[in-house]
Structure formats: C-alpha cells, structure tokens
Amino acid sequence: MKDQNSWSLDSWRKKHAAQQPEYKALEQLETCLQQVKAYPPLVFEGEVDSLKSELAEASVGKKFLLQGGDCAERFQDCNRNTIMNKINILLQMSVVLCYGSRRPVIRVGRIAGQYGKPRSNKTEEVNGTELPVYRGDNVNSFEAETKLREPDPSRLLQGYHLSALTLNYIRALSSGGFADLHHPDNWNLDFVAKSPHWPRYEEIVLNIKNAITFMETIGYKDTFLSGVDFYTSHEGLILPYEEALTKKSSLNGKYYNLGAHMLWIGDRTRQLDGAHIEYFRGIANPIGIKVGPSADPSDLVKAIEMLNPGHEMGRITLITRFGAGKASNHLPQLIKAVTDADLPVCWSCDPMHGNAIKTKNNIKTRDFNAILNELKETFAVHLKLGTHLGGVHFELTGDNVTECTGGSEGITDADLSRSYQTYCDPRLNYSQSLEMAFLISSMLEEEAKP
Ligand code: PEP
Ligand code: CO
Questions:
Q1: CATH number of the domain within which 440 lies
Q2: Closest CA to 425 of 359, 376, 375, 355
Q3: CA distance 245 to 204
Q4: Which atom of ligand 1 is nearest to the CA of 266?
C-alpha cells in the first residue's frame, strides 16, 4: 500500500493549487501537455546538479548568485536583440559583482520560460472594462479583450517552443566567443558616468580592465573569457505544465524538472498544505522560495523541512522581498528560526517585489533608491546576525526602457510613459542595472574587508 506521504508526479493534484488558470478546453489542454511531455527536455540533469553545487558554495560565501530578468517574459520578445541585451547586462553585472565580492558569480536568468504570473486579483479594469486578469503569455493574451483573456492551452506549447528558441540562442552566445559583451570596453557607461558616484565606478571599471589585460597577457584569455556558464529559471506556477516538464532521470532515478535549471515557489503559492510545495518536494532541482512580509518563521522552517528533509546544501535558496524599511523588522526572526533549526540555505534578496508603488497617474513603478535601500538593509541584517547574503534577484532588462524611476539617468514619473513596455512589474533598465551592480559591488567589497 502507498504511504500517505509518498510523492508521485501527480500527487500535487490531491491538494489545493493556488493561482491556476481555469481552463475550459480540457481536452485541448491534455493534448498540449502530452505534446510538451513528448518533446526533448530543455536542460540536462547534470547541469541542474552543477547549479545546485554552485548554490551550495554561495550559501557558505564562496560564490555569489545573480538572478535576474523580466517579471513576465513576452512571446514577442523572443528575438535576437532582446535576448542578447539581457544576456549582455547579466554578464556585465556579473563581472562587476565578481570584482567586488572576489567570488565567482553564478548567473541565473529569469529567462527561457518565465511566462506564467501569479496575480493578486482575478480581474482587472482596463479602460473602464472589467476583464479576466493577464496571467502571463503562457496563459492568456495581454490584449484587453475578454475573449483573448480566456486561458488558451495552445499557449503552453508556444511557450515551450519559444523557451527552446531562447535557450538555444543563450547557449550559442555563452559558448561562441561571447567575451566581447562582458569586456568593459563594450559597456555603455554614458548614463552611469553622470552619477555623482562616477569616480568610484570608474575606478572599478579600470581595475577590471587591468585584471582582464593581465589575464590575457599571461595566457588565460580562453578559459577566463570565452565560455561562460549561464543557467535558466522561472517561477514553477502552472502545475500541469511543470508536471509535463518533469522527467525521471535514467542516470539516478530522481525526478527533475527539465524545463529550467532552477525553479522558485512564489510568495503567493508557498502554503504548507498546498499543491506547489507538494510538487516541488519531489523534484531534484535547486528550489527558490520567495519570502515576503506574511511569512511566519515556524512555517518557513516547516516548508524547508518538507522540501529538503535531507538538509542537502544548495537545494534551497530563500529569496527575501519585504520592501525598504521592512527588512529589518521581518528578516531577523526568519534568519534566527532557520539558523536555530540548522537548515542549510542560500540567502538571496529580491529588492523589487516589496517596493512597487503607483504614480499619481496610476503607473506601477519602483524607485532606484528604495531598491538600493532594501539591499543595504538586508546586507546589514545578515552582517549583524553572522549570516551571508549569498545572492541578489532582480527584475531587469538590457533595453533602455523607462519603468523604474531614479538612477543616474534621472528617470522621473513624467518620463515613465516614454518607453514603458512591461506587461507586469517594472524592470530596471540597462544603465540602472549596471549602476546597481556597481553599488552592490562596493557593498560586497566592504563586507570582504577583514
Ligand atoms: C515575481 O517574482 O515576479 C513575483 C510575482 O514575486 P513574488 O512571488 O515574490 O511576489
Ligand atoms: Co514581478
């Protein structure tokens, strides 16, 4: 007889699954899922295991995690420039962070599958009309038409195809002499140079250039600059789809979600008795858990025990997102609970999701300084309690959008409409992201001082 606690690929179906699309075309859904299941995986379990070992190192301060990308990837952005620009900014940030932290940086994109979104409300008002809410391109269309907001199962297939195309290009870029893009000579520093902190940033750039020249001179050019590791991640939200992406490994008999290297559980779907925790506890991938102000310390400990009963290093990354001014209230008790329970985790900070505000004109934005302040606050709490901040998590793009205010470009509320492209949350643009990396790099350098 099956143990009540035994896990199977579909055991999540017996629990309540929050934030799921309500499909009407159930037969079509089944056909699409069968097709996804039949396709070759996007990633290989060996890569997933490598990321887990790298995250184990980040949890003890030997590496640093940079995770970033769109809030909601859009199907229409599956093109050369958008992908290249995103990889470009993530690589450049990783070089800056590597310099400051004196640690190798693990690069994880919110990319090649970040197509499903949890939402606070089931409906939204667009131009005076009440519509079913947009749940990401994997589910429905952003277009403001009731019919197009119906969950459409064929979008899951399209999402899979576009994830494969995206990842294929990322792999080409990462292995095919992509060095130029993360070489400081190719950084666009026009706006960053307007910052009052420029002399400090310039010093970092010069030091990195000198280090690279030195590496090239002594013959490390190829290994150091030509091939880079790049991992993918998305929120594991739409469970029938995540189930279809999950395979039993013929190498070790474990189940892996082979649609991404890392998956995370959102702040809205981490209920202890919910379907998401049930699904996630059976897969071997590294798992992120978003931790917001509603997280109860003892529940968080229980969630980690359920997801990682063997206390495997690198398995759990806690991504805290409280908002500036709130981290120092919420974070210490969570750190204490996790530390007292002796649970190995990698602490990361998402300074984006607790800092959303609306302008007078009702535009959703985030301010550069609030984002920076939550990071500073989080660093300070970890320093005080003797834990490591092992990584950072951003919503960003390599394009020059105007979605977040502030930064050296001086984007104001009035500038937002100029190039506001996101379908969901506002992202840091190219120069805001690079500047943020300089600022974090300086914090890491301070932290590394004896
Ligand atoms: C997200 O990462 O886009 C998101 C919805 O985050 P959270 O679950 O932390 O709200
Ligand atoms: Co978001």
A1: 3.20.20.70
A2: 355
A3: 42
A4: 8
CA dihedral 431, 437, 440, 444 (to 10 degrees): -160
Strands 255-257 and 246-248: antiparallel
Q: Is the CB of 263 inside a 6 Å radius of any atom of ligand 1?
A: no
**C-alpha distances out from residue 199 to 205, 369, 400, 417, 438, Å:** 10, 19, 23, 31, 11
Write down the pLDDT at residue 330: 98
Ligand nearest to the CA of 424: 2
Closest CA to 387 of 287, 318, 302: 318
Of residues 246, 72, 261, the one with CA closest to residue 159: 72
Contact by Cβ (8 Å): 329, 379? no
Q: Find, among 428, 335, 347, the residue nearest to 392 by Cα.
A: 347
Looking at all shown ligands, the one closest to residue 117's CA atom is 1
* Ligand 1 pocket member 118 (CB < 6 A): yes
Name the closest-CA residue to atom 1, ligand 1: 71
CB of 100 within 6 A of ligand 1: the answer is no
Cβ–ligand 1 contact at 276 (below 6 Å) = no
Structure tokens, 445? 């350098």
3-class secondary structure, 44: coil
Span from the CA of 223 to the centroid of ligand 1 (angstroms): 36
CB of 73 within 6 A of ligand 1: the answer is: no
Decide whether any atom of ligand 1 lies within 6 Å of the 435 Cβ. Answer: no
Nearest ligand 1 atom to the CA of 290 is 9
- Ligand located closest to 366 CA: 2
Alpha-carbon distances of 102 from 204, 238, 371, 383, 444, rounded to whole Å: 12, 38, 23, 17, 8
CA atoms within 13 A on the CB side of 61: 10
Residue 294: DSSP 8-state: T
Number of folded domains that form the chain:
1
Record the pTM.
Answer: 0.97
| 2 has pLDDT over 60 | no
What tens digit of pLDDT does each residue of 191-248 get? 999 999 999 999 999 999 998 888 888 877 655 555 678 999 999 999 999 999 999 9
Residue 346 main-chain phi, psi, to 5 deg: -100, 120
Range of the domain at 85: 4-448
CA Rg value for the chain: 21
Ligand 1 within 6 A of 426 CB?
A: no
